[in-house]
Sequence to fold (528 residues):
Amino acid sequence: MKTLFSKINCIAILLVVFSVVPTFATNYYVDGVNGNNTNTGYYSILAKQTIQSAANLTNPGDTVFIMNGIYQVTSVNGNVLNMTRSGAAGQYITFKPMAGHSPKLKASGGAWEAIILDGSYVILDGLELEGNNANLTYTNAYQSWQNYENNIKDWSVISGFNTNGISFGKNATVHHLIVRNCKVHDFPGAGMGGGKVDYVTVENNIVYNNSWYTMYATSGISFLNTKNYDTETGYKIIIRNNIVYNNKTTVPWERTNALSDGNGIILDVNVGYTGRTLVENNVSYNNGGGGIHAFRANHIDIINNTAYNNGTVVGYPEIDGQQSTDVKIYNNIMYARTGGNCNGNDAGAIYDYNLYFNGSAFKKGAHDITADPKFINKALDGTANFQLQNTSPAINNGSSVAGQFTANDILGIARPVGFSSDMGAYEYPTVNPNGVTQIDATNDDVHVFPNPAKDKITVSFSARSGANVAIGLFDLQGRLHSAKNYTATNEGTNSVEFSVNSLRSGMYLLKVTGNSGLSKTTKIFIRN
Fold:
């Protein structure tokens, strides 16, 4: 009897032990050239041939490594990947290239999407997706739309002019998606986007040359009808560090028979959505619609973005929040196309610490300025470089209030460098270059007394009453030692005191920057 009980106890213990053994994540491999879907996919030498075959096996925490090859779909309603399986919290299912590999995912013909994400807790990381624009023409796309309007609806033809790159939540309400480090280009329909989603992060992607031939008014990156997964009210939709350009529509929208959208980034109609959307550190240029366009979308923060030469087809502003509420637009650069507008007269939007140039700004905040941002290269294609020249008025003229500037810029540089953040997606990487490289020791507008100084200095300068003035004290290596933001109380001469008793003896540079972004710099000598 004792032996029997012992055996039963052992079995019970084993059952408990095995019941708590963790489920380990599985790696799957896909090789479009040498793989075979009858393989297990567990090793690179036993790789699957299609991404879908591996995706069908995935469970929470798994990773699908994609090897070199072209993964292409041309069939009606076909996809390179239709992801309907879900990961779990802390156990995302990830699709990414195998180290050292550069696969390309392509969709054309009758395909509506290259990738559909209809599962939750899924990551796409480092993939290139290419559409079929190179083999399509405006004439044929326009004729397809006209046929549709005349009730001639051959969907196998229509789909070929409306293929999208990545669709979120096409047939399901999903949440917790991440698309990062991807290149999505040349799709006749949308680059990426969708609706019925929550908790989505789109970051570090390059999205260009999309939406050219669609009749559905798509854009580069778009969110429509986002849905509440829970009752949280913090940031849940995040669009950051993306470069988005040359997305445009050329075929009328079938709903209105007029051209529409083709935005770089759009937040579209999220009535009832209670989460916040963060749009930060994006560069959006030469798009047919707006650079960043919010339409009937609420609870949005648009911070430290650079928008240039947008609205080339439908005339939208660089950045705006049309018919939206609770939209905050801080620290951005809006450089309008010739004849275009920087922003709109958005009743539900707050603008501040933005830089406008080359177009009308219908709504301005107290700290907004109008000046040439002085980009390094204002090209309209992939050669453009919207980093700042060292004389840019965007440098150190952004907000220093937490929440009104991003913690890091698009390149990962921590903000602020200097006494205040820079406007736009790029933070100038060294402290106050104007002050170090353009010294004017005899400037009549800025006076320092005494000079040399020991304990304190008085800085006097000319300014209009109410002007916002930033004053910074730097050493010759560009390190900031003291800074003050000052609102001029007098029309004409104003004075500010600085304590310098903690500084070592030597020469320093004092820079005074006004509302316009123009700055004056002078040498001072400390003798402590």
